Amino acid sequence: MPFQPTGQSTSIAAPIGGLNTRDAVDMMPEQDAIRLENFFPGATDVSVRNGFTAHATGLPSTVQTLMAYSSGATNELYAISNNAIYEVTSAGAIGSAVVSSLTNSQWQYVNFTTSGGGFLFCVNGADSPRHYNGTTWATPTLTGVTGSTINNLCVFKERLFFCINNSLSFGYLPINSVAGAITTFNLGSIFHMGGFIQAIGTWTRDGGSGPDDYIVFLTNHGEAVIYTGSDPGDADKWSLVGTFKLSRPIGKRCLINVNSDLILITEAGFMPLSQTLVTGENAPAKAISDKISGSILPAVKNFGSTFGWEAILYPKGQYGLFNVPDSTGGSFVQYAVNINTGAWGKFSGQDAYCWALLDGVLYFGGDTKTYQADTGLNDADANIEASAKTAFIYYGGRGSPKRFTAIRPVMGSNASLPVSIGFDVDFEDGTTAYTPSAVTTTGATWDEATWDVASWGGTISTSKSWRSVSNIGWNAAVRIRTSTKLQSVKWHSTDVMFEIGRGL
User: Fold this and answer.
1) pLDDT band at 4 (very low <50, low <70, confident <90, very high)
2) What's the CATH number where 158 sits?
3) Average pLDDT, whole number, for the chain?
4) Residues 344-383: pLDDT tens digits?
5) 89-98 long-range CB contacts below 8 Å, 24 or more apart?
6) Are 410 and 495 contacting, i.e. CB atoms less than 8 angstroms apart?
7) What is the tens place of the pLDDT at every residue in 209-223?
């Protein structure tokens, strides 16, 4: 007959509060997770992330830049590898390079529409800029500034604005122009800490094009100068808003617009410009990454100078993705934030040097290939390894010991699901061995056993079976680990049976 637990029970939600590497384990909110790898926290459950598939193949080396061109109904994707540009819009083996003999593969780009059509305009601070009009790649004719010294750019008020190598001056072109005379504007007397302008971004306080739109110039020392207006050459149409001290930015791809805010990738974490300016503070506690500061700040310290820091907003997946180096040799992880709840998850197994969004589809560049992300249930035919550990919860209060007798994870899948489950007490950190095949156990010892619920074929089914445990402690945490290749996995909640008493 089925196992019948005794005692009192309670149900806890899956860790929809997301990954928490900031708080001490004895003070962590109940809905948070000590570990949440390749699980993504939704509003009501956590689920194993989707996989990825190989897209364009045969690139000569690591893809360090992906550029999406979009103009009208035309959407094309370009990869920069081994100092050459390749079209990678279609899946399969690539053709010949469309631009070759470049100095490096680390480029920055924007899409810019003029009366002459839509352009992809890109720069790298070592080669002459390039632009693409949907038909032809060309080198624009620029005067006033040596083109090969332009290393970053943005679009503001129908103009292209440029960063110049090792300079506190920025450059800009006439309205609706992708060529011609570049005018420079010196901010050396405005900045107080020297250095050079590392990035330029835009910020709006009203969500659109209007009087509350600003351009932000950010130096390598973390100073920000903000202007409003449309023409730097006309004092009546160009006004200084202020100068602000922020944290030092990381890399050229250190800015991302999210709704009406500008998020900065900095040494203090992922900082929203609006929050920083309003409070006048620069502490990690003001970062949107505050809850995962225990992961981000060590990564900054160890790999802050490593290429690959980048952020991208992915509306279809309802998350923002931050690419973070995990070593100096080309290993990366991603921290994904639910844009509706603010909860974080960590993605691994996707060694992405760069990201791009083309017509709503997410891509990343890897070693000799580009990949389509967030598709399928495996990582290019390999299993997705996912693991999670909840916060330690004091069932029935901190002042009483408990004897834990049974556990019932409530999980959903579209197929038979091998899952390893552990149960830790009193801040233990167990190491449940993972068995990749379905194993049926009777009278097993938790922390060592593999849990599986017969076949779940067909549509999404839910497991609700009680399993016995035998642990005594003041608090407990649930560990779950799975290796999936053909299965969707959702974790809804966990029921725990226990007894409270003295001297247990």
Assistant:
1) low
2) 2.130.10.10
3) 89
4) 999 999 999 999 999 999 999 999 999 999 999 999 999 9
5) 89/358, 90/56, 91/54, 91/55, 91/56, 91/372, 92/56, 92/57, 93/56, 93/57, 93/58, 94/56, 94/57, 94/58, 94/59, 98/137
6) yes
7) 555 799 999 999 999
Are both 363 and 474 inside the same structural domain? Answer: no
User: In terms of DSSP H, where are the helices of 364-409?
Assistant: none
4: tokens are 């019948």
Is the pTM value of this prediction over 0.85?
yes
Among left, alpha and beta (phi > 0; psi -120 to 50; other), residue 483 is: beta
* Polymer length of the chain: 504
Q: What are phi and psi of 288, to 5 degrees?
A: -70, -20
Which residues form the domain of 393? Answer: 8-49+386-500
Q: What is the C-alpha separation between 33 and 47, in angstroms, rounded?
A: 13
490 sits in which H/E element: strand 489-500
Q: How far is CA 149 from CA 119, 125, 143, in A?
A: 20, 5, 12
Query: Among the three residues 378, 397, 428, which one is the final residue of a domain in this structure?
Result: 378
**DSSP-derived secondary structure for 224-285:** EEEEEES-TT-GGGEEEEEEEE-PPB-SS--EEEETTEEEEEETTEEEEHHHHHHHT---GG
Confidence of residue 283 (pLDDT cuts 50, 70, 90): low
- Whether 296 contacts 309, CB under 8 Å: no
pLDDT of residue 359: 97
Q: 């926290």: which residue's tokens?
A: 41
Residue 27 burial by CB count (10 A; 0-12/13-18/19+): exposed, middle or buried?
exposed
- The answer to whether residues 248 and 366 belong to one domain is yes
Burial profile 226-244: b = 16 or more Cβ within 10 angstroms, e = fewer:
bbbbeebeeeeebeebeeb
What sign results for the dihedral spanned by CA atoms 379, 381, 382, 384?
positive
| 162 and 123 Cβ atoms separated by less than 8 Å | yes
Type of residue at 37:
E
Q: Which residue has the higher pLDDT, 12 or 281?
A: 12
Residue 468's pLDDT band (boundaries 50, 70, 90)? confident
Could you tell me where the beta strands, DSSP code E, fall in 303-445? 310-314, 319-325, 332-338, 344-347, 354-358, 361-365, 367-372, 384-390, 402-413, 418-425
Residue 83 contacts residue 105 (beta carbons within 8 Å): yes
